[in-house]
Design goal:
Elements (H helix, E strand, L loop, with lengths): L2 E4 L3 H12 L4 E4 L3 H8 L10 H9 L3 E4 L2 H7 L2 E4 L14 H15 L6 E4 L7 H14 L8 E4 L9 H6 L4 E4 L3 H14 L6 E4 L1 H30 L6 H9 L20 H14 L5 H25 L6 E5 L14 H11 L3 E5 L4 H8 L4 E2 L12 E4 L4 H4 L13 E4 L12 E4 L5
Parallel strand pairs: 1-2, 1-4, 2-3, 4-5, 5-6, 7-8, 9-10, 9-12, 10-11, 12-13, 13-14
Helix pairs in contact: 1-3, 4-5, 5-6, 9-11, 9-12
Bound molecules: uridine-5'-diphosphate-glucuronic acid.
Uridine-5'-diphosphate-glucuronic acid (UGA) binds next to helix 9.
């Protein structure tokens, strides 16, 4: 079975690299020639632990990279659609890339003798596979689904920073489709990739699509829930949110994962998917009050940091503030919807002087702020002479900061949004989100 993967972003490139390095015959396709060139030179497009070695391995064995969709349709039996579905200007899901890819598949399919299974891995609102993608391919190919091709919804659950392990060991494989033969063929394909313990769920396309949104919405809800409790803890001396999370996390009905309080969730998925499901709900006449509250709590986290700053420094105009950590989470260079980026935008409006540091995300941050802020190439230098340091991303390197590291700060004010330092070891004014002073 030859596999095609259309769209080489985080999901597509990771999937192609893992499949290729496991010996599956794969064509990875993207319309961006620059991307193709970089991948062919065995370089990952973004920082992701272990990805580059899997990519190298795949390219030297069974992964071919191409910008030709016709080649994919002509040769592949299984075609995964992994193009991005970003947020449009209105905040709703932008389906232009997936529509474009579907049209191109359809056109190529017109003169092809293959009857591929087209598998939608991209995150799309319920109904998109059946009501948008399928009809587009049918129209352009002049073939009917079920006769000229098959279509399946198969959402992806991998996390940035863990793409290789999540691709190799998903917690669940959701397959949504109406044709049991093609569902079974896809299941058989996955069985070759995964060990026998991996669980499968077979359903229809719209339920599969909804599972993805419900999953990300629930994760965002868990984070906003703990952040709400964290705000309470912060106002009560002697309470630590981490102990509270530990305590409730032992209850198997709750679980400890995704109960780490912090500056709010960011990234290219949770904020976008929550906004999409909120707008979608309103469109179909459901008032998504809980999900709106989840968003509101998330926005409040940054406001709390600003409040702490102004409470301690008075005006923050011209104050020198150092931000440690720019990526939306550790082990990633992705700054999309990162809370650090939102914080910097507000601080710049208030005319603070910003210096930033991140082990991996400096280049992506520079592309946003250009010369409006200062970029530090070492960890300790940006602390010299600053009025406050804010730890935003829990990179391991920041956990190693000691009392001595802060000795040259103008004012030793530390705001630790992830509680990675310990107050008792610091001779400084130390504020941590979720810790009562
Ligand atoms: C998320 C989901 O976790 C994946 O299952 C899903 O496949 C992916 O979106 C997607 O839809 O493609 P990701 O965006 O890579 O994955 O990152 P997460 O690990 O979910 O973290 C998201 C944000 O929440 C980060 O800013 C992180 O710092 C924050 N977070 C996470 C917390 O503040 N506390 C936590 O306990 C967990």
């Amino acid at each position: 079975m030859k596999v095609g993967i259309i769209g080489l972003g985080v999901v597509g490139l990771s999937f192609a690299s893992v499949l290729g390095s496991k010996g599956f015959s794969v064509i990875g396709m993207d319309s961006d020639e620059q991307k193709i060139e970089k991948i062919n030179s065995k370089k990952s497009l973004f920082f992701e632990p272990k990805l580059e070695s899997f990519l190298k391995n795949a390219l030297s064995t069974s992964l071919e990279i191409s910008s030709d969709v016709q080649k994919v349709v002509k040769n592949c039996d299984l075609i995964f659609l992994t193009v991005g579905t970003p947020k449009s200007k209105s905040g709703f899901i932008d389906l232009s890339m997936i529509k474009n890819a579907s049209k191109n598949i359809g056109i190529s399919l017109r003169h092809s003798s293959k009857k591929p299974i087209i598998v939608v891995k991209s995150t799309v609102i319920p109904g998109t596979t059946a009501n948008v993608i399928k009809p587009l391919i049918e129209k352009m190919s002049r073939k009917k689904a079920g006769k000229g091709f098959e279509i399946i919804a198969n959402p992806e659950f991998l996390r940035e920073g863990n793409v290789i392990s999540d691709t190799l060991k998903p917690h669940l494989v959701v397959i949504g489709g109406s044709n049991s033969n093609s569902v079974n063929r896809l299941k058989k394909f996955y069985r070759k990739l995964y060990d026998s313990k991996i669980k499968f769920m077979i359903t229809n396309t719209q339920t599969a699509e909804m599972i993805k949104y419900a999953n990300n919405s629930f994760l965002a809800t868990k984070i906003s829930f703990i952040n709400q409790i964290s705000s309470l803890c912060q106002s009560i001396p002697g309470i630590s949110i981490d102990e509270v999370a530990e305590g409730i996390g032992v209850d198997p009905r709750i679980g400890r994962l995704f109960l780490n309080a912090g500056p709010g969730y960011g990234g290219s998925c949770l904020p976008k998917d929550l906004e999409t499901i909120i707008q979608f709900s309103s469109k179909i006449g459901v008032n998504p009050i809980l999900l709106k509250a989840v968003q509101q709590v998330n926005d409040l986290q940054i406001k709390q940091i600003i409040h702490l700053l102004e409470k301690n420094l008075g005006t923050i105009k011209n104050k020198r503030i150092t931000i440690l950590g720019l990526s939306f989470k550790e082990n990633s260079d992705d700054v999309r919807e990162s809370r650090s980026i939102e914080l910097i935008k507000i601080l710049l409006k208030k005319k603070s002087k910003i210096t930033v540091h991140d082990p991996k995300a400096m280049k992506n941050t520079e592309a946003i702020f250009k010369n409006k802020i200062t970029y530090a190439d070492s960890l300790l230098k940006p602390l010299d002479n600053c009025d406050c340091v804010i730890i935003m991303t829990p990179w391991k390197i920041y956990t190693k900061l000691k009392n001595n590291s802060f000795k040259n700060m103008k004012r030793k004010l530390i705001i630790d949004t992830r509680r990675i330092l310990s107050r008792k070891n610091l001779n400084a004014e130390y504020f941590a989100l979720g810790m009562g002073n």
